[in-house]
Structure formats: structure tokens, C-alpha cells
Write a structure and sequence with these properties.
This protein has about 475 residues and is mainly α. It is built from 19 helices and no strands. α1 packs parallel to α15. The longest helix is centred in the middle third of the chain and has 48 residues. The radius of gyration is 22 Å and the shape is globular.
Length: about 475
């Protein structure tokens, strides 16, 4: 045990929990609890988007990708930029007509109450499963640091994050996100220079060896209509198209991200936050891929066996090889990424539960009643995410498992949102048929084919839209007659 580093970590955990909890005095209404009162500056929302888009999966999973492969994952990040353009032009104008609390209220406006509940329920399932994998990823770091079992490790972080999210609502989530983002990006920069300093020959030696091994490759433009092409996760086509559709779904239809955009003062601030966040996202993915590359050279030089699974490479090196103080700060930074994402998930799950289900059925209660229920829902979802995290301990790659789970459901969700904003003819019934078809096709791709997860959202979206339009041409026309 490194007592000084443990002290830094404990100090961070106590400090960030206190900082988040002190926002509880501002929580007087649902608008305060779920939207931060719509008073947050755009730059803080932008940093919060980065923190929500990042997680322990990113921090420990991204270095493993370049350690085992190359920089091809950056092709996916280019798709993230295209997605922001689509969201800004297609979805945002609809979200800022009137005061919305959740993304799924838009579905009721266009289709009806049933589809609002179906899309909200899809989000709850999607976010709970994907966040459960992220909760497990937290345990990898905490178990290495404290030497505790995975379950005990999960308990520590979930309880602390749950406390300040329960007390401080969306305001606490956003401002703790800002602090935590600077901490984990700063920690990554620090670790990069420390690791690089341990390589004989420095960056020149890393670059020479990496170039010879083909590890500096970013783009893969190969295109052929074969199953092998569809099974490659990080080709240019899968990356840009897959990244675009994945992020359009996550940032344009999922409450976790839409809630941050809705917390902006106006549509202009929301757009600035969205595009500003991409620049930071690109930088941080490149940073973590670079760390993985330097670690590859380190293990190549030392001849030592790399930790297994690959997700342990970065956190184990930090705790075992960085100097005192640095390892405590960088480990705290990884925990910061975990806590910021978990707090965002808890608040968005609670807002969807209250606004899209309970308040729709029981609309006669006071604001104080709904606020108490929102806090109870936050607590309930904390217990659910803990349980899913415990059940997620068998996954091979936490980053790809989290993205893969989300991608299966995102296609159907994005497809029905596209129908909602681009069509007027498709009915609620036809849209629901399309959603079922999109989900069914993606489940088939996941469990019966080698098709990579980067294609799931694109295929699911096209299937949902295509089937909905086809059913509408028959069913809606007959009903109109």
C-alpha cells in the first residue's frame, strides 16, 4: 500500500462528495433538480458533455486499444463531429420549442403517449445495462488500488456518487463534471510524461518502433462488399458512419446527453456546448491512445508480460510504476471519470422515470412530492446499477462491451426520432413496428453474425425507418380510408 497516494485518493473522494452535496440548497423544483434551473453557462455544459461522454471505459479501455492495435479508433471520433452537425440542425430546434424535461416528450408531441413510454423505457434499459458495465470498470481500478474484491470496490464509488447526486441534482452533476474532467485529463497528461520519461530514447524511440510495427496507422480505407469488411470495427467507413450514427443516437435521443442540452439557457448556448465538447473529446481520445502506445513500447523493451485482461494495463502501470504522489493523483483522476459518468446516469435515469412515467399517470401532486420522488428514484437506480455491475464481471473488453450494448438499442431509438422530426405521415403504430424490427435485426447481428458493433446503429436506424415507412404505406393508408 502507498499510504501517501491512498491519502490523496481519500481526500479527493471526500472533497468531491462534499462539493457536489453542497448544491442541495438550490434544489427547490424539478426544473432545478433535473435541468439545473437552466442557468448554467454553456462552457460548463460543454465540459459536462465531455465527462458524460467519457467514463472509466474510456480511460482504461482506450489505451488498451492502441496497446493491442493502432490509432484506428480515431476514425470513430471523426464520426462524432458529423453527428454534432446533424443534431444541431435536425433535433435541437425541436427540443427548444417549449420547455422539455426529457427527450421523450418530443415523441409524445409527434406520435402519442405510448411511443413516449416505449422510447423512454428503451432508454432506461439501454442506460442501465451500459452503465452497469461502466460500474464494473470502476471496480478494476479500485481493486488494484485497495486490493479489495470487485464487489466491495463497486460499493465504495457507487455510494459516494449516489450521495452527492441524490442531494445536489443536475447542478451538482454538471459542476462536479467540470472539476473531474480537468482532473482526469490533467492526470492523463501527467502520466504520459512520466511514462515517456521511463523509455530509453524518449518519444523518438517510441515513434520509430511504432511506425515499424504499423501502430501509427489511423485510416483504413479498404472497401469490399464482404463479411470481413463488415467485421472490421475500425475501418474508415465503419468508424465515420458508425461513429456518426452512434453519437447522433446518444447525444440526440438519449436522456443522458439531451438533458445537458436542455439545461442550456437557449439553443445558441446548447450548440456552443455541443461543438466545443468535440474538440476536447478528440484531444482526450488521442491522448489515451498515445498513452497505450507508449506502454506498448515499455513492455516491448522490458520483455515483461502485459497484465491480462488488457484493460488492466494502464491502471496497473499507474499504481505500480509511477512515483509517489503522481500515482495517487492519476488514480483519483480515473475515479473522477467514473464518478462523473455515474452521476450523470443516475440523474438522467431518475428524470426519465419521474417525468415520462410517474408524473404522466399521477399529475395532481405538488412540486415537493415530485422532488422527493426524484431523489427516491435516484437512490433506486443506484441499487440497480450496482446489481448490474456485479453481473458484468465476465466481459472481455469493458470499452467495446459498453459501446456494443448501447449500439444494439440505439438503432431503433434513433430511427424513430428521425421519423418523428422528418415525417408527418407515419403513425404511432407504424413507428412501433419499425422499432421492433430495428431491435430484432440488431440482436441478430450481435448474436448470429461477426458484424462489428460499429455498424449496429446504422443498420438499426435504416431498418426502423424502412419498416416504419413500409408498414405506414399499407396500414396507415387503410386506416385513412
Amino acid at each position: 500500500m502507498h499510504s501517501f497516494d491512498l491519502g490523496l485518493i481519500v481526500l479527493y473522494l471526500i472533497g468531491i462528495t462534499w462539493f457536489g452535496a453542497h448544491f442541495r440548497k438550490q434544489q427547490k423544483s424539478l426544473k432545478d433538480y433535473f435541468l439545473g434551473g437552466k442557468t448554467t453557462p454553456w462552457w460548463a455544459i460543454g465540459f459536462s458533455i465531455v465527462s458524460a461522454e467519457t467514463s472509466t471505459l474510456t480511460v482504461i479501455g482506450t489505451p488498451a486499444l492502441s496497446f493491442q492495435g493502432n490509432f484506428g479508433f480515431l476514425q470513430v471520433v471523426l464520426g462524432y463531429l458529423l453527428a454534432r452537425i446533424v443534431i444541431s440542425l435536425l433535433f435541437m430546434p425541436h427540443y427548444f420549442r417549449g420547455e422539455l424535461f426529457t427527450a421523450y416528450e418530443l415523441m409524445q408531441r409527434r406520435f402519442g403517449l405510448r411511443l413516449r413510454r416505449v422510447t423512454a423505457g428503451t432508454f432506461l434499459l439501454l442506460r442501465a445495462l451500459a452503465e452497469g458495465v461502466r460500474v464494473f470498470a470502476i471496480s478494476i481500478v479500485v481493486a488494484i488500488v485497495l486490493g479489495t474484491g470487485e464487489i466491495a470496490s463497486i460499493v465504495v464509488i457507487v455510494c459516494l456518487t449516489l450521495f452527492y447526486t441524490f442531494e445536489g441534482g443536475m447542478t451538482a452533476v454538471i459542476w462536479t463534471d467540470v472539476v473531474q474532467m480537468f482532473l482526469y485529463v490533467g492526470g492523463a497528461i501527467l502520466s504520459l510524461f512520466v511514462i515517456l520519461g521511463q523509455i530509453d530514447g524518449g518519444w523518438q524511440a517510441v515513434a520509430t518502433a511504432a511506425a515499424a510495427a504499423g501502430k501509427l496507422q489511423v485510416f483504413d480505407f479498404r472497401f469490399e462488399p464482404t463479411m470481413e469488411f463488415l467485421s472490421r470495427q475500425y475501418s474508415f467507413w465503419a468508424g465515420v458512419l458508425g461513429g456518426c450514427f452512434l453519437t447522433t443516437a446518444s447525444h440526440g435521443t438519449e436522456q443522458l446527453m439531451v438533458q445537458r442540452l436542455l439545461a442550456a439557457r437557449n439553443i445558441g448556448d446548447a450548440r456552443k456546448a455541443l461543438f466545443g465538447s468535440w474538440a476536447v473529446i478528440f484531444f482526450q481520445f488521442a491522448l489515451f491512445l498515445l498513452i497505450g502506445l507508449i506502454l506498448w513500447k515499455h513492455y516491448l523493451d522490458s520483455g515483461a508480460a502485459a497484465p491480462q485482461p488488457a484493460d488492466r494495463i494502464y491502471p496497473e502501470f499507474i499504481w505500480n510504476s509511477l512515483p509517489a504522489g503522481a500515482r495517487g493523483l492519476v488514480t483519483a483522476a480515473i475515479l473522477a471519470a467514473a464518478m462523473s459518468n455515474l452521476s450523470a446516469a443516475l440523474n438522467s435515469l431518475a428524470s426519465t422515470t419521474v417525468m415520462d412515467f410517474y408524473k404522466l399517470k399521477f399529475s395532481h401532486h405538488s412540486e415537493a412530492h415530485y422532488l422527493r420522488l426524484a431523489k427516491a428514484a435516484t437512490l433506486g437506480w443506484g441499487i440497480v446499477l450496482f446489481a448490474i455491475g456485479v453481473l458484468s464481471r465476465q466481459v472481455k473488453s469493458v470499452l467495446e462491451a459498453g459501446l456494443g450494448i448501447a449500439s444494439i438499442l440505439y438503432g431503433a431509438l434513433l430511427g424513430v426520432f428521425v421519423l418523428g422530426v422528418l415525417t408527418r405521415r407515419v403513425s404511432e403504430k407504424s413507428a412501433m413496428f419499425g422499432m421492433l424490427a430495428g431491435l430484432g435485426v440488431n440482436l441478430y447481428l450481435r448474436f448470429a453474425t461477426p458484424v462489428a458493433w460499429t455498424w449496429y446503429v446504422l443498420v438499426g436506424t435504416l431498418t426502423t425507418v424502412g419498416v416504419s415507412l413500409a408498414v405506414s404505406a399499407v396500414v396507415d393508408r387503410e386506416e385513412a380510408q
